[in-house]
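FORM 12-B: Structure-to-Sequence Request
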């Protein structure tokens, strides 16, 4: 009876691990090591994240806590500001390692939101804010840039 009980417990354990969590309940504290493969805009990176030995995933990561101007913004001022934010982020991160923390699903899907630090350990959102390239953002309505 002993081996049979162990097998049942192992089977139940596997079944519990296979149940997917809903995106709202799913998060990961980190750190997760990643390499920046592209900079999408002033607050979003495309990374290759190392999730296990020899296993990487490609994912877009929105920097938590900030809002950058949009590259397709309503006015020339917004579009120029968006290019400046993207360029600073590109120079700082493109092809470089980063660490992801407090990773969760983004409300729009298809990407995650995370606190991201560069190779030196500096928070990228805080860096962009210190240069006045982005605004603080809490997930609510965004203020216009124009």
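FORM 12-B RESPONSE
SEQUENCE OUT:
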């Amino acid at each position: 009876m002993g081996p049979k009980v162990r097998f049942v417990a192992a089977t139940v354990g596997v079944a519990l691990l296979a149940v997917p969590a809903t995106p709202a309940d799913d998060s990961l504290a980190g750190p997760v090591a990643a390499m920046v493969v592209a900079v999408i805009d002033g607050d979003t990176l495309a990374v290759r994240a190392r999730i296990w030995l020899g296993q990487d995933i490609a994912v877009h990561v929105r920097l938590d806590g900030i809002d950058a101007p949009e590259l397709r913004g309503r006015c020339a001022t917004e579009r120029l500001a968006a290019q400046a934010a993207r360029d600073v982020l590109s120079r700082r991160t493109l092809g470089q390692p980063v660490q992801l923390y407090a990773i969760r699903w983004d409300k729009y899907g298809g990407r995650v939101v995370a606190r991201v630090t560069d190779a030196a350990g500096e928070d990228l959102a805080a860096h962009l804010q210190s240069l006045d390239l982005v605004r603080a953002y809490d997930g609510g309505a965004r203020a216009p840039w124009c």
